[in-house]
Amino acid sequence: MFRPLLALLFMAAALRAEGIDTLIDRSLEQHHSLKMIEQRLGAFDAMEDKSALFANPELLVGINDVQFDDPMDRTIEPMQFTSVSVRQKFPWFGKRGAAGEKVRAQKAVLFASLEAAQAELAKQIRLRAYTVTELNARLEVLQNYLALTDQNIALNTAYASTQRDRHMGIMSAELLRSDIAVRREKLTAMLTAQKARLAYLVQAPFDAVEADDTVTPPPPLESYLQRLENNRIYRVKEADQKAAAAETKVKALSANADPFVMVGYYYREAHPDYLSFTVGAALPLYGAERDDTEAARKTELSTAEAAADYRLQLRSEIEAAYAALSEAYRTYRIITEESLPQVEHMVDLSDAKLRSGSDLFNYFDLLERKLRFDEQRIAAKADYLRAGARLKALTGEIK
């Protein structure tokens, strides 16, 4: 007795609708594109450790003054020796610190890119989820209207033999039924495609999406503009600027030659051994380092201009998304508070006439009009929610 009950409970749990935040959490935890960036972030730790190290020392082994007459005799003259030398280059003051700053700045760019990818992923999940919810709602409405149309066709067919005027109304109803059936098939195909795209974004199967967001008056535009700098892509632009500044510092320090020290041990068979100490440095005579520094400065200036340009672009995108949000809200209110109540009242009046045996054609015309308003109301709510999702992404919100 309990086994069927348990099975029903398990089936109900399996078919439970999941909230959008739950889908976003799951995707952020396991999406492969994010894991790829996280792995690259881990590589920067090793690169930072490397930036603090000296260059590898060089080991040199040499045999000097080999006589062709007797190559194996190493006692002919004092110039004959066998040497082992070690050469070590030392970076100029501040170079290792600048290299570390550069690596950390590059890591900050990648981390900002990870956050931008998370925000974009969350936005796409919201957009797809709201579209899936919209399509489900429209299909439910169409199914209800299809059942109501079938019911009225069956009811009025019984009177068609006695009332000739009903034939045109029944034909109109059958055309409406065909139109609803075609639209249902198209929406079903669209729903399947949207669910497939959402499943990829979540990278896990799901049964249904629960979007319980209500349509409320939009907050002031200024509240969004004040959070403009939280935009994840804008933070990437700022991180790019800091990375370019770090690169400029590295290039400027490269004009200072790195000195090297070489110590050698010289072995002579017939004469005393000795040590040799050498200190040297490259001579930056041709100005290549100066050119590299100037190029890095230009790149730094270009990243600053890119950040300033994107800030202006971001402001315009927020204003455009806010306009879409406000328009969808006003449309939703007009349909909900004005259009639907009026057409519902007209349908009720027409339904009373229908039961008395007249005005069948007008009834189905009103029914089709009410269906159109119901679908427009669902679409307006979905547009409102999608515009809100875009504003969340533009202001840096992930959840």
Q: How are the secondary structure elements laid out?
A:
Blueprint: H1 2-14, E1 18-19, H2 20-30, H3 32-51, E2 58-64, E3 81-89, H4 95-157, H5 166-202, E4 209-210, H6 221-225, H7 232-253, E5 259-267, E6 274-281, H8 288-355, H9 360-394
Parallel strand pairs: 1-4
Antiparallel strand pairs: 2-3, 3-5, 5-6
Helix pairs in contact: 2-4, 3-4, 4-5, 4-7, 4-9, 5-9, 7-8, 8-9
Mind explaining what this structure looks like?
α4 (95-157) runs antiparallel to α9 (360-394), α5 packs parallel to α9 and α7 runs antiparallel to α8 (288-355). The strands form two sheets. This protein has a four-stranded antiparallel β-sheet, with no helix packed on it. It has a two-stranded parallel sheet with strand order 1-4. 69% of the residues lie in helices and 9% in strands. It has a single domain (23-394), classed as Outer membrane efflux proteins (OEP) (Up-down Bundle), CATH 1.20.1600. It is α+β, with helices and mostly antiparallel strands and 399 residues long. The protein is elongated, with a radius of gyration of 38 Å.
Task: Summarize this entry quickly.
The protein is α+β, with helices and mostly antiparallel strands and 399 residues long.
Order of helices and strands: HEHHEEHHEHHEEHH
Note poorly predicted spans. Answer: 1-15
Structural class: alpha+beta
- Reading off the top of the CATH hierarchy, the class is best stated as Mainly Alpha
Mean pLDDT: 85
Sheet with the most strands, sense and barrel status: 4 strands, antiparallel
Specify the overall morphology: elongated
Distance between the terminal alpha carbons, to the nearest Å? 44 Å
Indicate the CATH topology: Outer membrane efflux proteins (OEP)
Oligomer: single chain
The CATH superfamily appears as: Outer membrane efflux proteins (OEP)
Whole-number tally of structural domains = 1
Instruction: Quickly give the CATH architecture.
Output: Up-down Bundle
| Spatial strand arrangement across the major sheet | 2-3-5-6
Helix content: 55-70%
* Percent strand: 5-15%
In total, the number of strands is 6
- As a whole number of angstroms, the C-alpha radius of gyration is 38 Å
- The tally of helices reads 9
